[in-house]
Automatic annotation (TrEMBL):
InterPro entries: CDK (IPR050108), Kinase-like_dom_sf (IPR011009), Prot_kinase_dom (IPR000719), Protein_kinase_ATP_BS (IPR017441). ATP binds at K34. It comes from Nematostella vectensis (Starlet sea anemone). This is Protein kinase domain-containing protein. Keywords: ATP-binding, Kinase, Nucleotide-binding, Serine/threonine-protein kinase, Transferase.
Length: 205
C-alpha cells in the first residue's frame, strides 16, 4: 500500500473496506479492497513482479495435513481434530459468506494450531460426486470435503480412497449402499454418469 495514496472510502461492509486510491508514480486511480483478517485463512503478503513474472508471497505455515498424518498414522487426538475442524469450518464459512467455493481441498493443506486454509492441488478423495461427474455444484461440495477430512484425521484412514476418478465413484457408491441413510447415487447423477463419454462402457452398481 505504500505505493498508493488513499483518496477516500468508497464503501465498507462486514468483511472489508473499498478505498479509492491513486498510484504515486503514474497517478492511476484504482479501487482497492482491504479485507479484514479472518481466522483460519492464510494471509497474502505484498506480491511483486520480476522479469515479467508475478510472485505471490504468503505467510509461512510450518506443517501440512499429510505430514501430520505421517506422524500419527492411527489418527490425531480427538481434541486436536476438534480444533482443526472447527477452524476449517470457520474458514469455509468466511469463504461461503463471500460467495467463494473452495472445492480444492488436499492432503497438503497446511495446518497448525489455527488450521489455516491454503490452496493446493485437490485430492480426489475429498471430491463429491458432483465434482467427479462434472455436474453443477455449489457450497455443499466443501461440506462434503470437510466430512472426509474429519474422518481421515480421526483414524488416519481416508474415507473414500479411490485410485482414479471412476474408482472414486465406485468407492463412494459402495459406501452409500452400506449406509442406508445415504442410499444410491441420485437418478440425475446416474443419468450424468451414463451420458458422460469418460465413463463409456462402465457401470456403477
Amino acid at each position: 500500500m505504500n505505493k498508493y495514496e488513499v483518496l477516500g472510502i468508497v464503501g465498507e461492509g462486514a468483511y472489508g473496506v473499498v478505498m479509492k486510491c491513486r498510484h504515486k508514480e503514474n497517478n492511476e486511480v484504482v479501487a482497492i479492497k482491504k479485507f479484514k483478517d479472518s481466522e483460519g485463512i492464510q494471509m497474502l503478503a505484498p506480491s511483486f513482479r520480476r522479469r515479467g513474472k508475478l510472485y505471490l508471497v504468503f505467510e509461512y505455515v510450518e506443517k501440512n495435513m499429510l505430514e501430520l498424518l505421517e506422524e500419527m498414522p492411527n489418527g490425531v487426538p480427538a481434541h486436536r481434530v476438534r480444533n482443526y475442524i472447527f477452524q476449517l469450518i470457520k474458514a469455509i464459512k468466511w469463504c461461503h459468506q463471500n460467495d467463494v467455493i473452495h472445492r480444492g481441498f488436499a492432503r497438503a493443506m497446511t495446518v497448525n494450531s489455527s488450521a489455516q486454509l491454503t490452496d493446493y492441488v485437490a485430492t480426489r478423495w475429498y471430491r463429491s460426486t458432483e465434482l467427479l461427474l462434472g455436474a453443477p455444484y455449489g457450497k455443499p461440495v466443501d461440506i462434503w470435503a470437510i466430512g472426509c477430512i474429519l474422518g481421515e484425521l480421526s483414524d488416519g484412514q481416508p474415507v473414500f480412497p479411490g485410485e482414479s476418478e471412476i474408482d472414486q465413484l465406485f468407492t463412494i457408491q459402495k459406501a452409500r449402499q452400506l449406509i442406508l441413510v445415504l442410499g444410491p447415487l441420485p437418478p440425475e447423477q446416474m443419468n450424468m454418469f451414463h451420458s458422460n463419454p469418460r465413463f463409456s462402457g462402465l457401470k456403477v452398481t
